[in-house]
């Protein structure tokens, strides 16, 4: 792909389909994982050849590397309970006065005097605060209880960051130049391309003011940015 930023653009666009709230750092890590495989260019000055296992488009573009990064990042983010708790808590505080949240009413005696609020509160909620532990509002009063955050978050996050990291190589495999992608490294150093490669490849260190760069950017606009914009816009519209 021409600019490494485009990997982050399409991953961020796809990420718009995630349901909120998301762990803090989710978007930064999405962008980082999408771009990270190209960190292998540091091998050039170190004397590592393009075709080597750890050369450009080799190991860091592989399935194994994607899964490794997916595991590390998902584990890192799932261990940040404070960041997660803060976001739902902030939301929970806002509707306190609208009387539709049985949890906060327990801590807002003034609400008990609003006739409207009582209409929406089963009596059981007012007398059983412990039963509301699953409610987002309860998190705001029990930050220490985040140990019960759904462990299932780990798997979707792992799959997401693995997919984002792997997506880099998949898009590279759609480019019409350079070497193929070492998807199976370190087991095999065979380099793969898709049979259909519509994306104009960008040479490393391309001058973005050259005529060739404009062709590269036009190709990227068509095959990456446009689908990204459609994907992000449709996610925003459908999630309202
Ligand atoms: Zn790459």
Written account of the structure:
With 240 residues, this protein is an all-alpha fold. It has a domain of 164 residues. 49% of the residues lie in helices and 0% in strands. The chain contains ten helices and no strands. The longest helix is centred in the last third of the chain and has 28 residues.
Features of this protein?
single chain, 240 residues, mainly alpha, 10 helices, binds zinc ion
Summarize the structure.
With 240 residues, this protein is mainly alpha-helical. The chain has 10 helices and no strands. The chain has helices at residues 4-15, 26-35, 63-78, 81-93, 102-105, 115-119, 123-127, 136-141, 154-172, 211-238.
Backbone shape:
globular
Number of strands: 0
Elements, N to C (H/E): HHHHHHHHHH
Major β-sheet annotation: none
- Summed over residues and divided by their number, the pLDDT gives a mean of 77
**Structural class designation:** mainly alpha
Give the names of the bound compounds. Answer: zinc ion
- Rounded radius of gyration (Å): 24 Å
Number of helices: 10
Proportion of strand residues? under 5%
Percentage of residues in helical conformation = 40-55%
Question: How far do the termini sit from each other?
Answer: 32 Å
List segments where confidence is low: pLDDT < 50 over at least 5 consecutive residues: 82-151
Oligomer: single chain
């Amino acid at each position: 792909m021409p600019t490494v930023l485009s990997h982050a653009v399409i991953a961020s666009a796809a990420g718009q389909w995630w349901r909120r709230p998301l762990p803090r750092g989710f978007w930064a890590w999405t962008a980082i994982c999408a771009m990270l495989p190209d960190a292998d260019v540091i091998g050039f000055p170190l004397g590592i050849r393009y075709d080597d296992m750890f050369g450009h488009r080799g190991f860091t573009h592989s399935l194994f590397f994607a899964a490794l990064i997916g595991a590390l990042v998902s584990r890192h983010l799932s261990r940040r309970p404070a960041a997660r708790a803060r976001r739902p808590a902030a939301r929970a505080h806002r509707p306190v006065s609208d009387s539709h949240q049985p949890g906060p009413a327990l801590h807002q005696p003034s609400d008990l005097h609003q006739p409207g609020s009582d209409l929406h509160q089963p009596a059981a909620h007012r007398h059983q605060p412990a039963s509301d532990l699953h409610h987002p509002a309860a998190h705001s009063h029990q930050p220490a209880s985040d140990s019960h955050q759904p462990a299932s978050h780990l798997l979707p996050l792992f799959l997401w960051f693995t997919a984002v990291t792997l997506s880099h190589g998949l898009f590279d495999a759609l480019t019409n130049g350079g070497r193929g992608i070492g998807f199976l490294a370190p087991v095999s150093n065979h380099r793969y391309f898709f049979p259909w490669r519509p994306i104009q490849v960008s040479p490393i260190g391309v001058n973005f003011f050259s005529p060739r760069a404009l062709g590269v950017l036009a190709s990227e606009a068509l095959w990456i940015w446009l689908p990204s914009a459609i994907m992000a816009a449709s996610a925003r519209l459908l999630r309202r």
